[in-house]
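In this notation, each integer encodes one residue's backbone shape. One such record reads:

___
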Amino acid sequence: MSTPATSSLVTPDYWDEACRHLMKRDRVMKKLIPRFGEARLQSRGDAFTTLARSIVGQQISVKAAQSVWLRFLALGATADAPLQPGWVIDLGVEAMRSAGLSARKCDYLRDLAQHFIDGEVHESHWSAMDDEAIIEELVAIRGIGRWTAEMFLIFHLMRPNVLPLDDLGLIKGISLNYFSGEPVSRAEAREVGDAWAPFRSVATWYVWRSLDPLPVDY
């Protein structure tokens, strides 16, 4: 069995500009950004794989998600191409369950694959669509909520100004870095995040890094 290849990684061309902007405008970012040197957000460039991986990882640890993902790919994904929607449909639920996927996640993955096969995911239009329009399209897929759609905007499309207020890590990071660990309301988190515009995704990424130096991989 061949091992699925890792797609080429792409980094945002706005990253250095964003770092300069944030360090100039925000006292926390001025201290936080230099701690991580040349580390950058990276995208693997395949929409279906990114969304499938986000579904696999829902409600389980990063380590567990990686283990299930690798077992899932080992069922027959090939080394010379990205994960294909048709392969997921052909695989069948029993095989998917054998990789450690719940019945619900199997349904979600199959629904995701069917949306791609039926042309209901308009990849070619995304560059001309604003963030909210893309979120609306993605949340129509079973198993994808607003948080997952926002992660997709950040990690796949590398949109620069996403503020995922439903993300517990972001809220915790804002609490620790801006409020000395005191509880933070959604409104307070939004106020901090709005000051990061137009590079809220970049600041969010650094807040995540302040909690876990290893970057999240989608």
Notes: The two ends are 23 Å apart (CA to CA).
